[in-house]
Design a protein that fits this description.
Layout lengths: L10 E7 L5 E7 L12 E5 L9 H13 L3 E4 L16 H15 L4 E6 L1 H12 L4 E7 L5 H6 L5 H10 L1 E6 L2 E8 H7 L15 E6 L7 H10 L5 E6 L9 H16 L1
Parallel strand pairs: 3-4, 3-5, 5-6, 6-9, 9-10
Antiparallel strand pairs: 1-2, 2-4, 7-8
Helix pairs in contact: 2-3
């Protein structure tokens, strides 16, 4: 599999093999160098916790990029998508490494990073690690430090004891009747990647969108993130009655508008 994009707007589906042997499924749309929009930065979509690259935000942004002749990449972290059975074996550090490999090997030039939920945390790490490659950030219900800020406080003492003894627990989910597994390693390793309360030395333009009715990630966390960022070009947009997914047509249009604005800059 070639790592360098080929000219044109054809969609390419492939597997990226990392140095440690991990396999990352991806879909890449290469920008049209002959279009009127030549020179636009690429767009890299970073999905959320236990989501995959076939979700409505990822696919809608892919079509948005295609119409503009803009390069676009979406992918599944290890333990996500077709690899979901292996989810308990991975942690935030693995997913940051996956995103870094995709940025380094499947994109070229400046990129707009679009991070949904957990992807909003991961995009911050990419911007810190590769500041010369990141032209802007768009956060969608950004779940910064979520393992510590959102997950750990909700685990009752009895469950924490089981987590310590067994190394894992199963927790309920609004999106999966069977619930999902949380490992002690996920919590402990997540603490190595905490960024709040900051300061976070990210200086590129940032647009943060969050629904006021989000049941999973409080909108106040996005406001805290905005305050922690070093960039002076940070705009927070609160969407009245918006839920965590922000996948209604008008909400998707807001995300597209944020990508278009940062692309022009």
């Amino acid at each position: 599999m070639k790592d360098e994009p080929m000219p044109g707007t054809a969609e390419e589906t492939g597997i990226l093999t990392c140095e440690d042997g991990a396999s990352i499924a991806y879909v890449r749309l290469c920008g049209n160098g002959d279009s009127a929009t030549a020179g636009l930065p690429g767009v890299l979509f970073l999905g959320g916790f236990r989501s995959d690259m076939t979700g409505i935000k990822a696919t809608r942004l892919a079509e948005f990029a295609r119409a503009r002749g803009q390069a676009f990449v979406r992918f599944d972290y290890r333990g996500h998508g077709a690899d979901a059975a292996n989810f308990p074996n991975h942690t935030v550090g693995d997913w940051i490494a996956d995103a870094t490999a995709v940025l380094d090997r499947l994109t070229r030039g400046p990129q707009i990073l679009v991070g949904s939920s957990m992807g909003g945390w991961i995009m911050q790490h990419l911007a810190l690690a590769r500041p010369d490659r990141v032209a802007g950030l768009v956060g969608i219900a950004s779940a910064s430090d979520f393992t510590e800020r959102l997950m750990w406080p909700k685990i009752p003492e009895a469950s924490r004891a089981r987590l310590a003894a067994d190394g894992f627990i199963t927790v309920p989910s609004l999106y999966d009747p069977a619930g999902y597994v949380i490992t002690a390693r996920l919590i402990e390793e997540g603490r190595r990647h905490l960024l709040l309360p900051g300061p976070i030395p990210i200086h590129c333009p940032v647009r943060l969108l969050h629904g006021t009715a989000d049941p999973d990630v409080p909108w106040q966390l996005t406001v805290e993130l905005a305050d922690a960022l070093a960039s002076r070009d940070v705009v927070v947009s609160l969407i009245k009655d918006g839920d965590h997914r922000l996948s209604e047509p008008d909400q998707l249009a807001r995300i597209e508008a944020a990508v278009a604005e940062l692309s022009r800059r």
